[in-house]
What does this fold into?
Amino acid sequence: MTRRMRTDIGGWLMILPQMIGIAVFSLIPIAMAILISFSDMLYVQSDSFAALHLIGFAHFGDILTDPLFWRAVLNTFIAALCVPIQMAFGLLIAVLLKRLGKRLKQFFRAVLFIPYVSSMVAVVFMWQYIFEPTGAINSIVTAMGGEAVRFLTDPNWFMPCLILMMTWSGIGYYIILYEAALTNVNQSCIEAAELDGAGRMRRFFSIVVPAISPTTFYLLVMGIINGLQVFTWFQIICANLGDGFLWGPNNTGITIVYYIYQMAYVNQFGMGGAGRACAMSVLLVMIIGILTAVNFLFQKRWVHYD
Amino acid sequence: MKKGLKLCCGALAFAMAAGLLAGCGDPLREGKTVVTFWGWADDEEAEIVSSQIKWYNENNTDNIYVDYVPRPGDYVAAVNSTLGLDNVDGPDVFYASDEDFKRWVKRGFMADLQDYVDAAEIDLSSMWDSAVYRYRYDPETNTNNPDDHLYALPKDISPTGLFYNKSVFENHGVKVISVDEADLDEFNAGTKADKTGKTKADYGIPEDFEVPAQGFYRQYPYRGGQWRKPQYTDGKVTELMIFNNRIAMSWDEVEDLSMLFTKEDAYNAANLGKSDPTWGYLTHWWFAYGWSVGGDCAVDTTGNGDWEFTLGDETPHYLVYNEDGNYAVGDDYKALFVTKGEGGQLLRSDGTEYTLQAGQTLSGAMPSQRDAFERFVALTVPTGKGGLGISPRPQDVGTTERLSFFTTGRVAMIVEQNYRINSMRHAIGDRFEWDVAPLPIYKEYDLMTGEVSLEGVPAGHSGSTGFCIWSKSKVKDDAFKVIEYLTGETAQRMMANGGYNICIQRDLAQTEYVQANVADGKAPQNISVFVEYGDIQRPGDWWYMPDKTWIEVWAPTLNSDVKNGDRSIDAFFSEYTSLANDALKAYKG
It folds into this structure.
């Protein structure tokens, strides 16, 4: 055995545990999901694979003609609007924090990061209280003589409320990353621009924004990937809305992953079950893959690694 | 220092030894077949179940030890994720609510209990028929015919009733009596007191006034006409108003009474949080309305699982009466209603022709399901939008727990299930007096005689939990012995005396359960209303199919725009009827 081979084997042995983990917990489930997506399987359990019956692309055809699926796609993209909102406000707050003294900065950083690490269930209940007909906001509205607004059961208000909740909850993460990125911006470039007469806004948009563009790109890609898989917020809130609000008011609460979850685990018999849920998962992966590819394709135009 | 170290080591050794002892477990378990039993329970119910299990473990002669595992929070998720797998530790006996029952049978989680029940010669007639019936099922055809097999035996039943705020009634000048219809003549004659021990004179009812057999009587009733506010002089009402908690109100009567409590400016924010009621009545379910007149939201039109969405059906139904004057009951324990075909022939809901048997007669035409639905929707729709506005709209309720509207005094009456009684006792305390009454039913009165000329049937939904055996259990025979015990007299007596849920043995519920609950004068004193509903009430529409997809098609709009008054009933049905029918077809085959 040559030295090169010994080195290779050593390397393979070192990554073997990780490879096994990826195979068992990622590759095999992905392959199974693809297989199930071509079957009429209603639910996944021990005896399901013994009776696997393949039905070709039938689920994919059904999904593409299912109005609820397209509603879920629309809702998911609307919900994903919280990503650019978080990025914009995250950057703004990070810039403002940079101007504060050390103690004050640490205080606000902690305060802004707390929602990100808080229990999502607790956060949902808190917001639910705020938005209730007799909750905090409506108490103010009604005290001023207005009529209580049904924030979570009115289709016009439901999604804006959800976007607000998600933005509030996730913005801490964006602030921290942007703060770190701003620290690494080359100060000499800013000073040189200042000497050349560039104003504050010009310096920010022409030097700072390009300098932190790799961070922006990372946050955008990850934000879109996570945003398109939004689930927990909708699941908890719709469940709390009670009977008949499975999809939120007028279907405004259905997202792709929430729909998949309902199909695979809750309403298998009426919604098509595990087979259709897996087919929808495959479509979601394709949507995310295309958007990520587009992002990478266009990054050359606006992301600067220098 | 050394001494301290020794002490620490000693304490550690003792703690470890104690830990080892904990592994020894219950000595009763040794040498016995262990039957694992999963259930959900709050503290109060867990105490009752634990005492039932303790008794069995100490006294059974079947050489069985039951390992009771209460799973309060994650029960449904645990069953869904575990019972479909091989080689996992699952339960032998487990609970299934009627809501999850069909789904779990379809997924193969449950063993067919029919042979066990037949072999053990269990007397099913001693149990509530409506409870046993809901656990019969054919997963192939999605039917519940009397000859379909049992996949569970019922543990309990939890009917719905009308909870009312007695203090508010009395503050508004309504006299609250408790007289069965059969006792009314004696009560009127002043020779018999009502169930609370008070006579007609005690209530201040004029001697020459005959209290009629009505749930709610007032001198100037509203019957679809102009509602008249009672006159009060020096804080006392001058109009005679009587509420009888032993007789069901008609739809008109409950509306009339509710208007008495509903504030004219019910949606004024200034009313929020006040203890005086803002609204008269809160009912979330349309079942009592539609079922009372023979309607339903979905009907198996062939008896072979061909379901159709019928919430907006405009066909009037006719109730079949037997020779003895009681209404006839079908194989499904529902009152027997028929419709008239084009040729005048009588048709059952499954489309088969029905011939009246000797002595049977037909009622007059009942309001249609659509009529009943419209009456139900009108409760919440504001007056400015063509409704009555006597119930809080969905937008008023929002995500607030419905029960709290009653316990905080914001509605005077609420329809709720029996299992909420304990929550009510805790939440209301001594703040006001309350009790229960029968659910309203459809009634028409003869204007001349005041007698009932047309009457629907008492109807409403009840919840239930069943005992099942896991299809992969290795000790099914022993597991069934445990179920036999749990549904039998000894265990059910403990349940009845625990006073929590209504036990499944009819006789025990009618006697010991009622006695345990009314002891010490605690509310609700009229709890026998729930027991009387044991055989009458049926599972809600969430039980019809193996899951709720078909309900989710139309219910969100009903529970928001329609009940808020923002969408017309016509628009609702034109948009959702075909969608609901498509969803129902998905279950066939």
Notes: The radius of gyration of chain A is 24 Å. Residues 3-78+230-302 of chain A form one domain. The mean pLDDT of chain A is 91. The first helix of chain A runs from residue 3 to 37.
